[in-house]
Amino acid sequence: MPIDLEIARSVTLRPIADVAAAAGIPPDAVEFYGRHKAKLAVEALPEAPAGKLVLVTAINPTPAGEGKTTTSIGLADALNLTGRKAVLALREPSLGPCFGVKGGATGGGRSQVVPMEDINLHFTGDFHAVTAAHNLLAAMIDNHIHWGNALAIDVRRVVWRRVLDVNDRALRNIVQSTGGVANGYPRESGFDITVASEVMAILCLASDLHDLEARLGRIVIGYTRERQPITARDLKADGAMAVLMKEAIKPNLVQTLEGNPALIHGGPFANIAHGCNSVIATRTALSLGDYVVTEAGFGADLGAEKFCDIKCRSSGLKPDVVVIVATVRALKMNGGVAKDNLGPEDVAAVRRGSANLVRHIENIRQFGLPAIVAINHFVTDTAAEIAVVQEAAAAHATPAILCHHWAKGGAGASELADAVALLCERGQSQFAPLYDDALPLFDKINTVATRIYRAVEAIAEPHVLAQLKRWEDAGHGHLPVCIAKTQYSFSTDPKRLGAPTGHVLSVREVRLAAGAGFVVAICGEIATMPGLPRIAAAEHIRLGADGEVEGLS
User: Fold this and answer.
1) Could you report the per-residue pLDDT of 429-439, keeping only the tens digit for each?
2) How many whole angstroms separate alpha carbon 23 and alpha carbon 86?
3) What residues contact 140, with CB distance under 8 A and at least 6 apart?
4) Among candidates 363, 507, 361, which has minimal Cα distance to 444?
5) pLDDT tens per residue, range 384-404
6) Active site amino acids
7) Residue among 405, 322, 446 at smallest CA distance from 81
8) Mean pLDDT, to the nearest integer, of 264-292?
9) Number of neighbours of residue 276 by Cβ within 10 angstroms
10) Alpha-carbon span 248 to 266, nearest angstrom
11) Strand ranges (DSSP E) for 330-435?
């Protein structure tokens, strides 16, 4: 097979105006960004009944790959190919992973969204708007302190860092404002990657521009010496931040390789935030299609849990079906096989590793949602290994369907599309979040720890518990919790694969995202500013003789 970029360039794209028209989008709602990209003015869209919402998630990610985005695209194409009207709703890629280890995030093989170079590189500028709005607030904090500090901000308790959408470990922790009085008060600070910004989380949870501005105003940037919170609204920064975001809040319309509509919008980190595309894009897609295929970041223990407990709680969205993506290769790794030895058949390892898949099936059911397993096929998979995965899922009354969308596009996922549509029609979803709003914050953390991660309990130092109590007293106790931990394991140890039990979830730090509307519990070692690997993907990305991008994956 040719590489993804070659496949993407081999397809003649439809003019985006034609894609919009076929999706029922009126011309006055389309704002063109060239021939193959557009933003949508959602207020100009006609009202329509909401379609069925299909959430695509996965087992815990491994270096062997699962292909969640590729499966989401293949499923959307398959639904359209089989005569249903489906719209895809995904996150935008970050430049950090694109130039780091992971590469781009536009799918692969015959299941891609295009134009892939544009989507992976800058796209319509949404991430730059988030970066600018975030850093404007940071500048206004330091400026306020420099000019007299009328709000009595304690410079030791400023919690708002700066962001950049490039992996750069050297910026994780910095000393700023050195060089003299004119440059402000020296203090320790740092940078996060743009997708970890609360502004990004706000973009993806806001219902409209007015809600966006209100949420931006609620951002807590720091505290006084008496530990009273200072907000972006106190600094009068919310209006200018919203101005910078006024175009970014509009969903982006592109297409799949098969010419079907895809709304790609927003991209919060799936650890420090909720890891889902924007509520606005999802709702827009639901008004345009009978079926909407969307996804949540990382495995179901992080992404799907946050989709249900944060995004759905905030927006009122309710999934109808959940698709859990798995690969034989990844299940082998969960069964103890090293990445370099995944080629030979190993039925026993697949059987051991299937415990990870089963755990995710059980967890999805805790939300009252029906599940289907999509086995993303690799050429090294054997019939015996595939049968083991199907048997493990069947033992928990869940179909496991072999999919060939990477090689065949929508035609390779038609059986999955039929199964998804059938479950949607049966209306078996009895969706409910995992915990009640009124539960104390630490009890919410403990609920996720014990019911989703199967930990014995969650623990935290007294100062963490005291901070949670202060936030409850300040009126934030109703917020959901966002667990930030390794994506590779149900535990906080990335090397404990499979379905570990008996572990403890230790909360080392908590952060208030008052604007986004959740409390972050940081467990284990989590980097909110990733670093580049020894050999970065950026080393292979260049312009060819014809001016086209080469090396992008």
Assistant:
1) 999 999 999 99
2) 9
3) 235, 236, 237
4) 507
5) 999 999 999 999 999 999 999
6) 68, 70, 91, 102, 270, 298, 378, 406
7) 405
8) 95
9) 32
10) 9
11) 371-376, 400-403
